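thread: overnight batch results

M.L. [08:02]
morning all. the overnight job finished for the chain we discussed friday. pasting input first so we're all looking at the same thing
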Amino acid sequence: MRYSSWLGNVLILSAWITVFWWLNESPHWTTIFSQSNVSLWAIFVVGLLFLGLSHLPLAWQAPNKMADCSKKQKWLTHLFAASLPLLLFWLLYHLVLNTWWSFDDPDILRYIDRIGPIAGFFDPSQKYNFYTPLQHFSLGIDYGLFGLNPTGFYWHHLLSLSVVILLAYLVLSLFFAPLLASMIVSLFVVAVPTAHITHFLMVRHYVEGLALSLIAVSAYVQAVRQERWAWAGLGSLFYLLATMAKELYVPLVIALVWLPIGTVKTRLRLLIPYIIVAILYTLLRIYMLGEHVFSGYSEKSTTWLDVVNFPTAFINVMGWHALWQWLIMLGIASVFSVMLWQRRLTLGLSSLVWFGMAFIPLIPIMWRIPMLPYYLFVFVLLFYIGCGIALNHLGKLSPWRNALITGVFLALLLTSLLPVQTAQFHLHALKQAEKTQGEFLMYNPSSATVLIYDYPVATSLIYLRNKVLSRTEGVKWCPKEDCLCTTQYPGYTAKQYVNGEWQTKTLSPAGCGNVKKPLSVIISLTPDTVNWHFGPYPQGQGQYYAKVTMQGGQAQNHAAFFPIQPQGTQPLAQPLSNPVQWIVKYVTPDGQEIYSAPLLLEPTQMNEQGLVEVIWHASDD
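M.L. [08:03]
and the structure it wrote out:
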């Protein structure tokens, strides 16, 4: 037996060396890894450490068989096992500390600056889209500590993920041997959804919600095993916090009762505090969101085709495109499927419930998963727990347990590691472009320059620049170089960042439609109404459009134009207090466009008759 074990480990080590020699000789992979500042040989050493861990006496011991072992030996084994996924995480993702704001980050910071980090918990009038108040509370702490320095935010973000890794190991070690728990968490670390969630601050609530959920699970396990209500009460508080981080974690209350611990009666009895919390959360959510309690993203909804194609979407997100990846995943899936069939009334039912509870919250946003893999963050953890169950079963079938499980694990690690590095390569390029353009918009003092940048929340960067940095003069912004932009900023220098290089030109409205055609605009504002009259073209001859924003200048120039009658009156529910900007567009019957200049109505400048009026004309000269 010792000879076969020694031979198996030699084979695994030889294969591991061969793979990394090949990766090191590949120009493609050396470039991918170097761009992420990740050493191939550091990852190689992590593999060797797993081989070393597999030879520790307690590494294979199930939790119920470690009771008689010395505390020091158990502690050292768990310390070694828990440190490996943590080491892997920091090796892979440390470069994230140097990145900048991304996607919705500026919008969230603007909300926090205006509303504060607390109001979203209890004030329906101050809610931010969905009910996830811990998202703003967590980022609000960073905002108070670090201001607009993203490095501090990312330190918090990566430390939160580190806590998730340690808590995941802690919970899994209640059911798995230390080696298997360490392997499961390591596979979770190198998953593409984890890579994406590591790069984006806006999804911090997914991370901290999972951490709180893991604490709730651990407390529930202790409550059932010790039959103590105190543990159940404590766990339910963490469960409440998890639900306030993200509604994704609400179904945990259903899944807990299917854990393989205690008796069904005990599990149900000690679940009562969690059920009470779930009811309280539901009532609070209804209070905060009202009729939008079940609403999702308005621009699109999930179809049955999206649901049916979920397995394909999952495979594509994980980056399993090569035949060797398919063979490895097919092998481990086959072992797990056999186990489900053999234990269908226990493992089968509990797996169905746990995966179902992770799957159901994904249905409303399933169409977004191919674009935003971080939605699979929790689902992929459950997936790799399934792989860990299969690995454990596989080891029982072979006398070469040590080499077999370690070898399959290293193969699974490579299956996800290579796609993760490819994903990081693209993420770093994306975030570098965001940083270059975002810093230019926030810190460049040139008021005669326009940044052409299709970034929906650029207005929030402008808000932070004006309000927080007190830079009221600076670069203007347009989402694209169109007639609206050139009409607003004629003669300005336009800068656009394309393929890593700045392109510069002078904006001119000369080629923008037929600007020599006449256009007249008269807009008046009273405390009760807005009135307008456009000319000289009558109704039915072409079409007038207007873009109306409540914040003057460029703050909302990504808003859409809407069709409007040549003249009309709009009653106001209450007098306006903020400036109103109008831009009028006329499209001729043959498709030519004429734009007005930006026209600003200042409610504070009403005359004695309670009227403020702007008149604008473009002649055909």
